[in-house]
Specification:
This protein is mostly helical. 24% of the residues lie in helices and 4% in strands. Strands 1-2-3 form a three-stranded antiparallel β-sheet. Helix 1 crosses helix 2 (48-66).
């Protein structure tokens, strides 16, 4: 069966159908060779398309001579409309060599050299940038190269990373996570890092780039949790302490000098605010930044989580952070708040004389006109002299 088709330079060429595929006739080859010789001899090309047409004829003539069959489908490249069998026609792929690998696109199974085959990427234009995916080195336009993202599906959403705008499923877009480059501030708190100098940040330097890391700052709180701030608002990138570093990259999201890794995503005081965002994690009206992670009473609980930091059986919320006896120790850590030598534990927060002053702050708890300090000294002397009498 004979058909007539037009070449790129409007040359009418005969073709034959073989096994349902168009077969270029010998006339096309002969005309191509003749045209090549003529144009080269004349030193003039009518247009860029003429040059490309001539080049393709010469290339295909070589294929015919060698019987090349790049995709091993039993059809010589000269007669194969998809010589590399990637599902994209040779006409669409063209003779260019996009990735400079010395293979023309129509024979290259990875035209853009991104490690993802043309057969997978195909002719679609995912990011609508006018470049088909098989030519596009950043198919989802997230500033991360497809070669880095790959065809893996990290978050299991059935969208390959190279097309997924949130590869790790933490509600923070890859574009945002990729923007945080190395900071001039070399401290860990800078919240940025790119140890392998590939242009992609790895804040916690764990070898996993932030866009693939579910815990980018390595604080044991997931980016998903940190991105939401109070777990109700989102998705967005928040910066609770307004220090210029978003929570998911901030090692101390609330700026209370206690690392998020220590505070965690717990809510010990039941105020619906996680400790890493709570400036008063135990609701004792004393800021965490003041209480710190220190454990004053040695009970295994940091002061910022301990409602009785000095273990005197009087809540920190009652004692507060004043300094009643001006001894330099805040009341919530002072075992003798009124400095009368009688411990708060012994005096308690009862009000024996009903003067609206709790005993641990009252210099004369029984209102007998004798200071507690003197009464205590007398008591101690009695105990020392005759312990059995004191017991009675």
């Amino acid at each position: 069966m004979m058909l007539m088709e037009y070449g790129e330079d409007a040359v009418l060429l005969p073709t034959k159908l073989v096994h349902g595929k168009p077969r270029q006739g010998l006339l096309k080859t002969a005309l191509g060779i003749a045209l090549s010789i003529f144009l080269v001899t004349a030193g003039v090309f009518k247009s860029k398309s003429t040059f490309q047409f001539v080049r393709s004829i010469v290339f295909e003539t070589t294929d015919q001579a060698t019987g090349a069959d790049s995709d091993h489908d039993g059809v010589h490249d000269l007669w194969d409309g998809d010589a590399d069998d990637d599902g994209i026609t040779d006409q669409v792929e063209g003779m260019q060599d996009l990735d400079k690998d010395h293979l023309p696109n129509y024979l290259d199974d990875d035209s853009d050299g991104d490690g993802i085959t043309d057969q997978i990427e195909q002719e679609g234009d995912f990011d609508s940038d006018g470049i088909p995916d098989f030519f596009d080195t950043d198919s989802d336009a997230d500033t991360l190269p497809d070669s880095l993202e790959t065809v893996a599906d990290n978050d299991g959403d059935n969208v390959p990373n190279y097309l997924d705008d949130d590869t790790d499923g933490d509600t923070i877009s890859d574009r945002v996570e990729a923007k945080h480059r190395e900071s001039d501030d070399e401290s860990e708190d800078a919240g940025k890092g790119d140890t392998d100098e590939d242009g992609v940040p790895d804040t916690d330097k764990d070898g996993v780039p932030d866009f693939e890391d579910n815990d980018s700052d390595g604080d044991n709180v997931t980016d998903l949790e940190e991105a939401f701030f109070d777990y109700k608002i989102g998705p967005h990138m928040t910066d609770f302490d307004d220090d210029g570093t978003p929570n998911y990259l901030d090692l101390d999201s609330d700026g209370d000098q206690i690392p998020d890794s220590h505070e965690g995503n717990h809510d010990p005081d039941g105020d619906t605010l996680m400790s890493l965002y709570d400036l008063d994690s135990d609701s004792d009206r004393i800021p965490d930044v003041e209480e710190t992670v220190f454990d004053s009473d040695g009970d295994g609980q940091s002061n910022y989580l301990d409602t009785d930091s000095d273990d005197d059986q009087i809540n920190d919320a009652e004692e507060r952070n004043g300094d009643f006896d001006l001894d330099g120790t805040p009341d919530y850590l002072d075992n003798d708040t009124d400095g009368d030598t009688v411990s708060d534990l012994a005096e308690t927060n009862a009000d024996l004389d009903h003067d609206a002053m709790p005993n641990y702050r009252d210099h004369d708890s029984d209102d007998d006109g004798i200071p507690d300090m003197i009464e205590f000294e007398v008591h101690e002397k009695v105990v020392a002299a005759a312990p059995e009498v004191a017991v009675k």
